[in-house]
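User: For my dataset I need records formatted as: sequence, then structure tokens, nothing else. Please produce one.
Assistant:
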Amino acid sequence: SPLPSLSEIVGQHVGLDDFLISPLADLDVLTPAAMTLEEGAYAEMYFERVLAFVQSAGAGYRFVIFDTASGMPPETQRLLNVVDGVILLSTSELASIADAYALVKLLHSAGARAEIGLLPSMVSSSHEAGELQQKFNLLVEKFLKRRVHKWGHLPFDEKLPAAAAQGKLLWDTAERSPYLL
């Protein structure tokens, strides 16, 4: 089924838990919202609803993972002020590494106390992931005097770009994806 639009989620007079799906035991995922350019005004309301939902006593989650968009919209900046940890997803492409470094630099300059981890994505091996982690930490240590923790890695998965291009959730489009094993 197509993802609900941002205006559908914000405009509904129901709880966000109605938009939760459970692809695996002990894992709930808040359905990502498809956002058109015209719906940019809803981003702040959506963020407020999500933040209130996870901070509510009824949510009952040990961990809440926010998947933010690239760049630094105001909602993401506000979110980074209240989280305990940030996991940066980066491929070995230069633009991805530069974006990850820019976020570490922003967190550092803002005085954020969140733990920061790097999760190399779309790598061919654990060796490639380790090299990316090592090079990234050399950069961060040299210029920011900070260290980024290792969070494992996500293997190359040809099914992931296809799912993203279709605007569908990975578990709806692929049965044997490495990400789902």
